[in-house]
């Protein structure tokens, strides 16, 4: 059983987009897990074995209790009936009240499809007649993290004290990043020498919007229910 479960299409998606929030929730005493839909085997760099080891190291740095892979095909994540059953099984197994998933629009179809697949599965997991031999379960809240497609955030989580740990988890995916000792490796978007700076700049930009050094943007559907605006915003 977990309190929080984050889903990513590829083994480094969750740390780059939500690593700060996951560290914060772990430090708040919550049981946090990560599910990667693929092993990232289409990636230009790193073998699936290397990427799995890196993903486990990153999970340890963030303090996640569980990191699983559903072994869906990289580059071909689809919102099919079979895929939804896989996700429903995972949700019913871990019963997380909060799930953190990609926004459903992105130029990378795996990210967009992961957003749609997990969102729909979260609803369907609550239907008794979808039989997986497990108790039905529906998360209380779904929030979406930002991949490539920009959206107006519903809220931004300040991550100043978690930024270094988040970046350490990102750097655990060493096969994906620029290595001065291996200049002949094929280049990818994230293997450019400046990529980690760009990632930090994005967190810096969203942090500045809420008076923090670093922040992560999130989107939620629906309207926030707030009983005491004073307690939420005006406590000194
Ligand atoms: Zn990705």
TrEMBL record:
Coiled-coil regions listed in the entry: none
InterPro entries in the record: Bacillithiol_biosynth_BshB1 (IPR023842), GlcNAc_PI_deacetylase-related (IPR003737), LmbE-like_dom_sf (IPR024078)
One Pfam family, short name: PIG-L
GO biological process: bacillithiol biosynthetic process
Molecular function GO labels: deacetylase activity; hydrolase activity, acting on carbon-nitrogen (but not peptide) bonds, in linear amides
Protein name in the entry: Bacillithiol biosynthesis deacetylase BshB1
Lineage of source species: Bacteria, Pseudomonadati, Candidatus Hydrogenedentota, Candidatus Abyssobacteria
């Amino acid at each position: 059983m977990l309190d929080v479960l984050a889903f990513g299409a590829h083994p480094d998606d969750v740390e780059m987009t939500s690593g700060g929030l996951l560290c914060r929730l772990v430090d708040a005493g919550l049981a946090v897990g990560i599910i990667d839909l693929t092993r990232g085997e289409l990636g230009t760099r790193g073998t699936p074995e290397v990427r799995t080891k890196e993903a486990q190291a990153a999970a340890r740095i963030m303090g996640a209790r569980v990191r699983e892979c559903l072994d869906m095909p990289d580059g071909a994540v689809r919102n099919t009936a079979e895929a939804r059953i896989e996700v429903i099984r995972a949700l019913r197994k871990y019963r997380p009240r909060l799930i953190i998933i990609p926004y459903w629009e992105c130029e990378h179809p795996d990210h967009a499809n992961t957003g749609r697949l997990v969102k729909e599965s979260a609803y369907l997991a609550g239907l008794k007649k979808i039989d997986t031999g497990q108790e039905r379960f529906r998360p209380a809240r779904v929030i979406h993290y930002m991949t490539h497609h920009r959206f107006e955030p519903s809220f931004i989580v300040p991550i100043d004290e978690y930024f270094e740990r988040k970046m350490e988890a990102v750097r655990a995916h060493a096969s994906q990043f620029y290595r001065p000792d291996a200049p002949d490796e094929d280049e990818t978007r994230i293997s450019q020498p400046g990529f980690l700076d760009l990632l930090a700049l994005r967190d810096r930009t969203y942090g500045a919007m809420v008076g923090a050094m670093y922040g992560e943007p999130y989107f939620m559907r629906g309207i926030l229910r707030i009983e005491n605006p004073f307690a939420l915003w005006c406590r000194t």
